[in-house]
Amino acid sequence: MINVPTAPASAPRSAPPAPIATHTSSTLGLGLLVALVVGSIIGSGIFGLPQNMAAGAGAGAILIGWTITGVGMLMLARVYQMLALRKPELDNGVYAYARASSGEYVGFNSAWGYWVSAWLGNVGYLVAAFGALGYFFPAFGEGNTQASVIGASIVLWVIHAMVLRGIQGATVLNAVITLAKVVPLLLFVGLVAMAFQVSTFRLDFWGSSQLGPVLDQVKSTMLVTVWVFIGIEGASVYSARARRREDVGRATVIGFLICLLLLMAVSLLSMGLFTQPELAGLKNPSMAAVLEKAVGTWGAVLIYVGLIVSVGGGFLAWMLLAAESLFTPAGGGVMPAWLARQNGKGVPANALWLTNGMVQLFLVVTLYSKASYLALISLSTAMILLPYLFSAAYGLTLAWRGEGERSAQRPSDMPVAAIASLYCVWLLYAAGVKYLLLSALLYAPGAIVYFIAKKQRAERAFRSWELAILALVVLLAVLGMYLLASGRLSL
Predict the structure, then answer these.
(1) Structural domain total, the chain
(2) Is the residue at 231 inside a domain?
(3) pLDDT at residue 238 in the model
(4) Structure letter (DSSP) for residue 242
């Protein structure tokens, strides 16, 4: 059994050992782990990708954006692969790597940010799914009508009940759904490639003057590309349940390459059928309009059906990841102990109930606020940027110090981790101040949960430097709240 370490290297030697959450089985092979990564990445984002990318960039800038994203995300995938081998004793990497490098409060924040990103993304998935059903049944509208919320709530709790019956069965179902949702994507790529027009693709290659400088266009693509790649760490989060530790890294890289090829093909081939302004004006899921132009009405129907299946699979994968992202930190003592409890099937039931309770709450919020899919995914993306940075920085630290399993160390580890770290810093810059403030609003309440967890163990909650981090987060949250209330900041 592989357990979370009792304390990070930076923790005082007198710290009492943390309670460890144990898993009842480690049964996920390479195929299921790859399916978990692909199922987590390929959700709703790819179906709106043509319009989302073209909204602020021309073909040239989009190519540059994909180059940056491809290299950056590949390096991040390699970092997760490297860390899984160098530090095989660390479970749930998103949390454990941040804790090992910077202490318990930073580790908690990484897990908290990842969890919030996961369930916010799941709300977005449900909104997207019922928005797609609105193509066939107008009562569902854009996915945030009363009928949509009722339907989404039923789906939520049916899948919740299914997951409670066992992780292994849920991951097998996820693998089946993943295969099913890749088929319409491959059809799209093949059919649109046959209708591709080079002259259309080359028109205003570097974007019109309204789009601004190329650098601004490239920046506009960054949050979109991160959103469609969220899930690259899926195998790492489930590392404790892997049959072989080396499969975690292999699944991460294989899943990444599969998704990169699909995402780039969907985005770039679409620009050979529509000009940039035309793509930017399409209603989402914009893949439907692109395929409809290539083959007729049945193409749009195929994409809407594919979106519904894809979102269902992505929703299931992220429900599993969200619960696991609470379970392991609770076992490590940085979240309330009741979140570390499993049912008789080895499922972190309490973490699952809390996660889906938040999804249900925000489904109701969408009914009254009319929150859009794009608003939800933007917040979800912003929340995951810091957990990614913590992982990359920890990989860089290990490579610099030469720490970890000797057999797993490679000469390329240092440049790989350095590029991944620079890419994560670039993402924070590209996201801008707006999403920094909105993220702080969601990070700040986590301090209360962390304080409760530490009080349960009769431990000091915050050390002096952690108090400085808390003060900064609260300050940014207060500023964000003020700007939201005054109407100077909006999602």
Answers:
(1) 1
(2) yes
(3) 62
(4) B
Name 170's Cβ contacts closer than 8 Å, sequence gap at least 6: 162, 163, 316, 320
- Predicted confidence at residue 87, as pLDDT, reads 87
Which two three-digit tokens encode residue 277? Answer: 């302004």
Number of H helices, E strands in the chain: 20, 0
Among candidate residues 165, 223, 163, the one with its CA nearest the CA of residue 355: 163
Domain that holds residue 356: 30-432
Q: What residues in the chain have per-residue pLDDT under 70?
A: 1-27, 92, 167-175, 233-241, 370-376, 491
| Amino acid present at 226 | V
Cβ-based neighbour number of residue 59 at 10 Å: 24
Question: DSSP E strands: which ranges in 55-117?
Answer: none
In a domain, 40, yes or no: yes
Cβ–Cβ < 8 Å for 349, 162: no
Residue 252 corresponds to which tokens in the numbers above?
Answer: 């991460």
Amino acid at 71: V
- How far, in Å, CA of 453 to CA of 459, rounded? 9
Backbone angles phi, psi at 164, to 5 degrees: -60, -20
In this predicted model, what pLDDT tens digit does every residue of 1-39 receive, in sequence order? 333 333 333 333 233 333 334 444 456 788 778 877 787
Residue with tokens 């991040």: 76
Domain CATH code at residue 258: 1.20.1740.10
For 277-337, the DSSP string reads HHHHTPPSSHHHHHHHHHH-HHHHHHHHHHHHHHHHHHHHHHHHHHHHHHHHHHHTTSS-G
Contact 109, 384 (CB under 8 A): no
Closest among 482, 445, 278, 419 to 358, alpha carbons compared: 445
The pLDDT value recorded for residue 16 is: 31
Does this model's pTM top 0.85?
no
